[in-house]
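User: Just a sanity check before I run the rest of the batch. Below are the structure tokens for the first item. I only need the designed sequence back.
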């Protein structure tokens, strides 16, 4: 696919950003073989974002040790059955990255096979007791999970589920709310939408790294995963596909909601929650400005005939792991 085929999308998005372009389709031209072709550099970026083998081994060892402690703890409590565990999140989807500070995370679901007799908060405290002294850092009790922090630059998040028939699953959250939800359903949706397309996986990782490059809060990696699946624009070059996808995302956000204040990202499976509901109005406007800057500067890089100039833009936008 050559870039002129989606030129109206780019022009519409840039016009929405207040960027005036007096041009025709031919002004962008066919970018194949241009001096600023950074496709290979983006492929190297993808490799740089991949968690190294030693840290992956450490994560796996930590997971095994945590699961053993939790199982042994609940064996001693008559009111509970012993939970089982299932890997969730980006590590399970192939979209895990190492962050700007060279850290990463793991998501491991805790599954009880009957409705717990106590509140979600009580279960969290049981889990905290089970892991007492496991690390030198404290266990955090978060809204929908517990988080175990490690000094070796990673953490493990553990959401809590129960099921009574192994068909309907319920996710716990503070306030003792249990909402129908199953991470496997999302993985099935993701695999169906991705359909083996490795470029989609890479672009999700690019967006996650790009958002991690900011000091202020932007949408989560899960939100970008959903958005990229919906608004992905393919191209044989990753640098072009990245900007086309960003432009397509921005265009649809503007079409669906007149103001960033009302932007949303709805989970495509139960519980169909808004994945950017945790952003306040200022943070949503910050995201608008950041996404607009990515599109504008990315387009400058694509149109340039100067490879070094293009690389400077990509390093600025994508962060420390973008290297030549």
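Assistant: Here's the designed sequence for the first item:
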């Amino acid at each position: 696919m050559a870039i002129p085929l989606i030129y109206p999308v780019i022009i519409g998005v840039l016009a929405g950003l207040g960027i005036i372009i007096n041009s025709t389709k031919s002004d962008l031209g066919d970018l194949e073989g241009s001096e600023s072709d950074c496709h290979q550099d983006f492929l190297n970026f993808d490799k740089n974002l991949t968690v190294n083998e030693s840290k992956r081994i450490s994560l796996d060892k930590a997971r095994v040790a945590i699961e053993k402690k939790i199982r042994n703890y609940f064996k001693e409590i008559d009111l509970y059955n012993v939970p089982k565990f299932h890997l969730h999140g980006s590590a399970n989807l192939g979209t895990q990255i190492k962050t700007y500070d060279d850290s990463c995370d793991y998501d491991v679901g805790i599954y009880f096979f009957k409705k717990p007799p106590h509140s979600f908060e009580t279960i969290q405290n049981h889990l905290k007791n089970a892991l007492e002294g496991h690390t030198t850092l404290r266990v955090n009790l978060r809204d929908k999970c517990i988080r175990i922090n490690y000094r070796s630059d990673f953490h493990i998040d553990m959401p809590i589920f129960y099921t009574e028939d192994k068909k309907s699953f319920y996710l716990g959250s503070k306030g003792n709310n249990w909402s129908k939800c199953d991470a496997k359903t999302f993985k099935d949706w993701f695999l169906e939408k991705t359909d083996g397309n490795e470029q989609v996986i890479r672009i999700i990782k690019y967006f996650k790294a790009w958002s991690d490059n900011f000091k202020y809060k932007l949408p989560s990696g899960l939100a970008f995963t959903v958005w990229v699946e919906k608004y992905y624009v393919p191209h044989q070059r990753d640098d072009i596909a990245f900007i086309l996808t960003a432009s397509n995302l921005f265009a649809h956000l503007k079409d669906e909601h007149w103001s960033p204040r009302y932007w949303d990202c709805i989970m495509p499976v139960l519980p169909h929650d808004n994945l950017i509901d945790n952003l306040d109005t200022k943070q949503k406007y910050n995201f608008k400005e950041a996404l607009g800057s990515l599109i504008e500067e990315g387009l400058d890089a694509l149109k340039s005939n100067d490879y070094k100039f293009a690389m400077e833009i990509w390093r600025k936008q994508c962060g420390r792991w973008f290297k030549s």
